Amino acid sequence: MPENAQQSQGVYVEPGQEYHRDTNYIETRIARDGRDGYPVEPGRYRLVVARACPWANRAVIVRRLLGLEDAISMGICGPTHDERSWTFDLDPGGKDPILGIERLQEAFFRRIPDYQRGITVPAIVDVPSGAVVTNDFAQITLDLSTQWTEFHRDGAPDLYPENLRDQIDEVAAVVFTEVNNGVYRCGFAGSQESYDRAFDQLFARLDWLSDRLANQRYLVGDTITEADVRLFTTLARFDAVYYGHFKCNRSKLSEMPVLWAYARDLFQTPGFGDTTDFDQIKKHYYIVHSDINPTQIVPKGPDLSGWLTAHHREQLGGRPFGDGTAPPPPPDGELVPAANSALAWR
Description:
Blueprint: E1 45-50, H1 54-66, E2 73-77, H2 104-111, E3 123-126, E4 131-134, H3 137-146, H4 165-180, H5 182-187, H6 192-213, H7 226-242, H8 257-267, H9 278-288
Parallel strand pairs: 1-2
Antiparallel strand pairs: 1-3, 3-4
Helix pairs in contact: 1-3, 1-7, 4-6, 4-7, 6-8, 7-8
Organism: Saxibacter everestensis
Pfam families: GST_C_2, GST_N_2
Protein name: Glutathione S-transferase C-terminal domain-containing protein
């Protein structure tokens, strides 16, 4: 954690106001045809993430499932940041070893010197120039699936199959508004009315998802798709953070039988649970959101051992990777420490 982090945390709750996420990102795309000036090129780009962030966790999972580790390197920021930027405090000397920078902010300023918006992860940086290409998290994962196919591993799943894209997009849109962002609309609500509204929408949508998943293993079709990746990263953080810290406390995930079994099924699938760092997740939310948690005390719980229990979702059929195969274990430098995972609670 940067020395000045406690003195310079951002403000996340505006009294009397409903929370609105700024979704104006750098929309430049890395595409096969180089339409925006950044063609697909292995070894040229670096994906910068933070394991704590659900939006970044999506990109980590997709990169892993598709086997793009050799084509796109990955830099990992620490779990906490101040109001200026995510930082590379996990790396020796506090600098990313490839980009040579201490703050992700530096890469944004190399692209747009007067950049005024949030410094967010995931972000993809052009290594030769040191400048951010994009931080458009929703498009990043879709482009990894559709533009980088030449560099996918043998057996990579199709996470965004063309015949299901309309359904995936439809489900992902409501999940984003009412679940992925819905927990933030609860946690960052500045009025009772806006909190109540977000709370009711969140749990109505979770009930809808439970009904949808009661008799089918995955959200769209019979294989894992982009829609499942997007929902999983919110569910993985629900009991550890959102239930208490964001006041999403009608029910814990572990008290919603269908969603709990669905989440465990994905967690136990290579690429999901082994990219989930519960220690960093808790440190991020409870330390960074100091206007919600002024003491910055990080809770020791919850007990994570339940993530490793039998889910029985395989009885619904489905094939996790379709005609593909599971990814190999993560590279050594990208392993989540056992002490930070559900393994520590066995």
